[in-house]
Design a protein that fits this description.
alpha+beta, 7-stranded mixed β-sheet
Amino acid sequence: MDRPSPPSLTDHDVDGLVFNSSFDHANLKDAQRARDGAWDLCMAKDAENTSNEKRSSTWFYFRVRDERDGPKRQARFRFAGMARQGQLYKHGHRPVVRRMKDKEQLGGAKCWSSLTGSGGWKRLSNCSYRDQGDRTGDLQFDYMFADKGDEAEFAFCFPYAYEESLATHREVLTRVTGDIVAYNELLCFSAEGRRIEMLTITDNHGADKREEDLLYGHADVASTSHLFPEVRDGTATRPPRYPEKAEVIISARVHPGETPASFVLDGLLELLLRPDDRRAKVLRRNYVFRFIPQLNPDGVHRGHYRHDSYGVNLNRVYWPSPDSEKAPAQAALMVLAKAASTRPKGLALFVDLHAHASKRGVFIYGNHLEDTEQHIENRLYALLLSVNSSHFDYHACNFSKEHMLRCDGPSAATPGASAEGSARVACMRYTGLARAYTLECNYNCGRLTNNVPKASGEGAQRGASPERPATITPEPFTPDSWREVGRALGASLLDVTGMNPWDRVKQSRYKNVQLARRFIEDQTVRKRAGAVALAVHSVARMSSLRTRKAARESTSTEDIRKLAADARRAVLASQKKEEVTLPRLPITKRGRKATSKVRAALRMNAANVGRATFV
């Protein structure tokens, strides 16, 4: 389906600087010379010049060639009216720059195929940002060109273009050796006809003589007629079945500007393709990994930040029943998840990769599960990620029901859209999978870095990365930082199933996975008991207009004991799904410290409930 091309520049000369943005993933619609000598720039909004135009204007990516005569090579660039991103820039985020000579030396479109390094990109050192009162921001940065004819490209964050993704992953799969099995299939075409490819990684153990089918039996989730078009027309075949292996699905770039997601995916891919790594061998032996690197290739190609070419946030269309014409990759992803869940070993893990502009660090949004055991297992994987990755922030994760069911606010690009339509929530509802996650990576940095213990096990000292100490002054993220998180996804899956040959948990504060599970049990019970206790305690509080007086009033000592017993009874009953009516508590004068005594009693009660429930 053809859509108007996004605004772009082709060899646009402005006082000796030649601007170009008519290439894959680029975004720059105008450049003018300001009175103060700077070059004023303007980026296009998502789906600009269409009826679906959005206000998202954060992603930029363009090239500049210096054709000025004379010795002066300094240039100042300024964006005005871009979408406000003060939370990101105030913590030190800087755009990135790369000389075109460096890109050519790294293989052009194959510049990321080494699955290591920064692809020649560097963060700019001289940059300033200011929020404006109309929910926009102004960004300014300087650059020194080397000489006349020097060409450089600039971007909001490390770019990973659509064509680069195709070239990189095709190149990577040509280097596969040994018993590693790697397939690259055309999953479907995008709404604008671009290829959406799927990588499958495993080993040759347990292969069935039968090929994978075309997933006809899952049309109840979404239409399957658009899947595997090359297989349907006879020009390709599907890989063999592996009935004794569970499946893992990793997806990325449903939001086109969230490039850190691609580097996380590459990190796990790099681990799996190591021929001699014992962890990789165990992962390949026990799982079939499915990677969908580009869920929104139309948005990526057009240089959008958050939407597809129709201005749709595709992470809100998975539930119920994604439309295979308007959102073909999203329909395909849910069909893949449902099909995997119905196979003998089922679906073990689903991770949809994203990036975050305001919340620092790397963290997970998980689903809220009412069943306590499932909820604990859900959180356990996140906790183990913090053991294997120095950048993963377990305490920033969110597994609340409110977040899972929230609706986008009026200031969002898609006001009123529900998070129930996101990939992780839809996957859980289609398949019943507890470990379905949204992994978020900040574009810039985290709040701190974890201590990553040394790995133990045969060959760990030679093959695993060394111990990394904790810090409170983290360095800005690079592509290697995000790749490290990707490798931790694989290591943590081995930990949670007790199969990690190079175990780091033994050297961590948790000592073993069972104690880590017990740590989460304690957290879960305390939190759920605390919710009941808070409701009980609120009975003894007065309205906000009388808060000062309420602070001087509390129950007697005898009533505190009764309060603890009632709270414990309420928690136990709530686990059995029974309704309990809690009594109103008598109020007596006890002084300013009375309220804290009640809180202490409730905390003690919550701990007792935890022991009574799980010991």
